[in-house]
Amino acid sequence: MYVGSKGRPGITRGVAARSSLAACAALALTTACTAGSMDSAGAQSAGLPTVRVALGVDASYAPLYLAEEHGMFEKEGVHVELIKTEGGPAAAQAVTAGTAQMSASANSTALSLMAGDSDLRALGVFQSSARYIKVVLRNGITSPRQIKTMASVQGIGLYATHQYLRHNGIDPKSVKILQSSAPEIPGMLKRGSIDGYILFEPWASKGAAAGGHIAGYTGDFGVMSIQWLLADQGWLKGHEELAGKVFKAVAAADKIVSDDPQAGAKATNQQVKLPVADAAKVLPEITFAARGIQKADVTDAQKIVDFLLGQELIKKSPALGTTLLNGWYEKHGQ
Q: Would you tell me which CATH number, out of the four given (3.40.190.10, 3.40.50.1950, 3.50.50.60, 3.40.50.720), belongs to the domain 134-221?
């Protein structure tokens, strides 16, 4: 049984379409498009309601990969299809477009989209980190004041870049910041087109191997990487119990990945072909723990919204008291 969508037009950036075959064709990824080993386990998922969950393709999503590989969603009574995107805004855009009912998305990215889609809801946090997103500088750049050009992705990347420069007493307007996609940025560093960037794994390590070095972490200048589970309100109002089952499986998988990063690394390899050793190395940098939206989350969200407004990236603030569902996780996800 397929549990509804919003029926909106399709999105334009590497988001999965409505069928598995179309999803593989739509995503411009270097990894194979996989739906997870449990998708074919017909007896286990037969008759269960289906929820499509959009997400990116890096180790930070290990709990969702592990829950899929180990049949943990089915154990909660829901069949989940993981819709893999290029990351950034694409996962949340899948919810806005109606090609997914839920997504795993960074808070900064989600907030920029909430400004234009009042139906997006943050249900709770499933992971956070002060070290997973790293500052990468070109070899030869020994001080932030030497930086002339940086590259950035939308959302957390741009926000972190501005915060990093300000933290070091640099006016962001004095630095040329080029917008690009994560897979392209390490090559830009290697060619000498940029002096640095701030990005998550595996793209931080790829830059370090391509003529750069890790020069710090976002936590050094007060920026946390926080991932929310999002849902569309139009769908959520009739499926809160179902969304709660998805979150319960992710929360249980959080605990496994936290206790056994190797298990998370193996699941990541099965789902998106990231080498086990690479995933195992970075997973301990992330705190995998599910929780509800807290007052501090709203405070951080307001700071991000103020930044987006100041950059004229959004025209109005999302209604944080409505879009961030305080208490929802405690009621439905535990």
A: 3.40.190.10
